[in-house]
Amino acid sequence: MVKKRMMKLTAFVLACGMIFVLGACGSKEEAPADTQATETQAEAQQASGDAASEDAGESTGMANPWVEYSNMEEACNAAGFSFNVPETVGSYVGLSFSVMNNELIQVVYGEPDKGVTIRKAEGSEDISGDYNTYAEEKEVDVNGTMVGMAGNDGLISLAVWEKDGYSYSVMVNDEENPGLSQEAMEEIVQAAW
After folding, report:
1. How far is CA 95 from CA 68, 70, 85, 89, 162, in A?
2. Contact 159, 185 (CB under 8 A)
3. Residue ranges of the domains in the chain?
4. Residue 120: CB atoms within 10 Å
5. Of 14 and 71, which is predicted with more confidence?
6. Is 116 in contact with 177 (CB distance < 8 Å)?
7. Nearest by Cα to 117 from 172, 159, 193
8. 180, 190, 145, 178: which is closest to 164 by C-alpha?
9. How far is it, in rounded angstroms, from Cα 51 to Cα 46?
């Protein structure tokens, strides 16, 4: 019986998707297509919500891997390692702490879409999450640690390095101030361990 319901739900969702695609391709007016898409999405969400309530044992979505903490001590306890960061970075107001999958600590100064993010995790991989292409890239020796720095127009937007079995990154995400001076980035690198 559950299989039959799941098959019906799948057929319904596929039919809604086809209606959406056909409606988007054939429509010359922008507003009706947007309205139709919103209605189709609402129907699909309602259908998936109904199926989830019918069979609570199955999950229809992915859980958010990030867990917010109120301070650095809680974040470090969750991840199982310590992390020292500067108290402030530039003029960014606000500080948030989060941990992903009990493996990576992230500290955001300001807002995620307008601020500076510092990360630490065990291993040697690039953990920055920054996949931009930068015009300027260089390796800089900061107190005996080689740090990869990248940016544009003489400003540093990204720094990544490895030290003592941990990976670190500093990323600037701010359209108004797209990077820091090399000196300012080096100060953050020295403070983060």
Report:
1. 11, 9, 11, 10, 24
2. yes
3. 2-54, 66-191
4. 24
5. 71
6. no
7. 172
8. 145
9. 9
Q: How far apart are CA 98 and CA 75, in angstroms?
A: 6
pLDDT digits 0-9 by tens, 109-127: 998 889 999 999 999 999 9
Q: From the centroid of its chain, how far is CA 121?
A: 15
Evaluate whether the domain defined by 66-191 bears CATH number 3.40.1000. Answer: yes
Cα–Cα distance measured from residue 136 to residue 127, given in angstroms and rounded to the nearest whole number = 20
pLDDT band at 173 (very low <50, low <70, confident <90, very high): very high
15 residue type, one letter:
A
- Rounded to an integer, what distance in angstroms lies between the CA atom of residue 107 and that of residue 176? 20
Query: How far is the C-alpha of 52 from the C-alpha of 29, rounded, in Å?
Result: 35
Does an H or E element contain 190, and which? Answer: helix 182-191
Amino acid sitting at position 44: A
pLDDT in tens, 65-105: 999 999 999 999 999 999 999 999 999 988 999 999 999 99
Q: How far apart are CA 109 and CA 89, in angstroms?
A: 7
Q: How far apart are the two ends of the chain, measured CA to CA in Å?
A: 56
Q: Which tokens hold the place of 79?
A: 């991840």
Q: Is 51 left (phi over 0), alpha (psi -120 to 50) or beta?
A: alpha
Q: Kindly report the number of other CB atoms within 10 A of residue 173's CB atom.
A: 20
